[in-house]
Amino acid sequence: MTADRFGNPLDSSVGYARGRYLASSADEIRRLRHAQAVAAEVIDERGPEAIGIFTGNPRYFPLKPDDLTTYCEEWVGPGLFAQELNQAAVDHLGGGDTTVVTNRTSAGIIAAILALAAAKPVVSVKPDGDRSHTSVARGCRLAGVKLIEVDASDHIEPILASEVPALVIVTTVTSTLARMSDLAAVTAVQKAKAAGAVVFLDEAYGARLRPVLHGGAKSLTLGADLAITNADKAGLSGPRAGIIAGAATPVLATLAKASELGQEARAPIAAGAMRSLQRFDPEDLRQEARDGQAIAEALAARFGDNMVQRSDLGPMLDEQDVMAVLLDRTGRSSSPLVPAEATALIGMILLRDQGVLTVNTHGAPGGRVSIRLKPTAGALDAAGGAAALVAALQRALDILAKRLDDEGWVTATLFGRA
Known about the structure:
The protein has 418 residues and is α/β, with parallel strands linked by helices. The protein is built from 16 helices and 13 strands.
């Protein structure tokens, strides 16, 4: 598709339409900076317990006091905890010879593409009907190579034979929580390895979501050469970091490239990621899933099952469906806003009025722009429960419906007053 259902041209690099307010990544950063200020105001006025994190990423820093003067020391610290980190990552990901930590999962994916693509097209296998993470497309552009996305159910052998990739990326669970079966993942891995490619698993969510909620296998037991997971998703507490484990040659090549570009995690981040792995409790993930299902039920009761897309960790409202609801309420056929701007504004209202923090306010540039409500520990209680959260969303829609043409209000809500 080249346009959304309202005729707005899609930006192929991010998968959604950009408008006049959020026209670029720089605009999204301006929105993020203002959202951070709004969240700070909420805490100043109502206390830290007033904020509920619904991004699925808690991003705490679980260091121990003694770590600050030992493991966090930049010169000696990494050597002190290297063996402990390696053991924690190997246990968590189900194998590997060595481990590295990057400052973001996106950074690790981009570094792997730059290090391992070998100037050949990259084949990305993902759950049917979804897409790879934005970092895969951006990494391929930086490497100057073609990206070929294929569904898990596609016949990939002809593509592997014609393109002869050096690197195949397999995403078992996407950021919308679309999931590939373990059988499909193993099949993709085996076919890619038979074609001579290095296989890299994007397991940002999948490393825990598949085994804990679906009885699946640990990441590297699927047969890939290396895998990456996120230190602050699906039951891990943070900090934000990417944890890579696998065979020494591709992992160290990825670390070398990450180090060249300043994408490797420094000692405090790496130590925090290790502590996050060590304190992981599968029950935390199961509770997140239960809270997410409670929100989905409440949303479905208000908006109908056909509008609510359910996932293991919470519901999603597609940005175009949200825009359709707004237009229906106002009796209009078009809007001065694109869907991504509408959901960003709704996110700002939810944050300001209810303390509900979502990816629509705090997501990275190019991230998904649907309204996703993936509660972290305690988030649903902070929002007052599922019914209160849905009522707050209803109020945000009502406010926005009355302000679609108010340029001053839109600008101030997204970016703050000049």
